[in-house]
Amino acid sequence: MTELNPTGKPLPKATPETAPFWQGCAEGELRLQHCLDCGHVQYYPRKLCSGCFSENVEWRAASGRGTIRSWSTVVAPSSPGFAEEVPFVSILVRLAEGPTMLSVLRHCSPEQVDFDMPVEVIFEQRSETIYIPYFKPAG
Ligand SMILES: [Zn+2]
Fold first, then answer.
1. pLDDT, tens digit, for every residue of 57-110?
2. Which residues contact 100 (CB under 8 A, 6 or more apart)?
């Protein structure tokens, strides 16, 4: 069962594979894994490169920028903790480094969203150590 924080929102738990990602978020830096053998860049975090199955992957800071590939306006909260946030815009972001990331768009109404809209990452604190990456229109 997913742990909830006091606001009723799911609280991600860092694992050995994801700890560098969450540490980066806490430091205000989006991090992606780069394969040193084939050059593939991946998200979500994995032990192996999803391009060539090499274990020779390293973490690097990403630009935090991307464009909206697709989106959906969420009107029914998936958890009681999100009841006050609906409607919000769930987005697929094509990161500048290549991978696609599922996130939420902040500081933008559902009517203003568009394909290929430039966005940049922001972080919102959910617990003492967990910061969640969201996106906002690039400014
Ligand atoms: Zn690879």
1. 999 999 999 999 999 999 998 888 889 999 999 999 999 999 999 999 999 999
2. 43, 69, 92, 93, 94
Distance CA 11, CA 3 (A): 5
* Structure token pair of residue 5: 């924080």
pTM for the complete prediction?
0.92
7 pLDDT tier (thresholds 50, 70, 90): confident
Report the separation in Å between the CA atom of 79 and the middle of ligand 1, taken as the mean of its atom positions: 37
Query: Two tokens at 79?
Result: 């958890």
Distance 35 CA to ligand 1 centre (A): 5
Ligand 1: centre distance to CA 101 (Å): 19
Distance, CA of 61 to CA of 59 (rounded, Å): 7
Q: Where are the domains of the chain?
A: 19-137
What is the rounded distance in angstroms from the CA atom of residue 122 to the CA atom of residue 74? 20
Specify the length of the chain in residues. 139
At residue 3, the pLDDT reads 67
Report d(CA 122, CA 118) in Å as an integer.
13
- Is the pLDDT assigned to residue 11 strictly greater than 70? yes
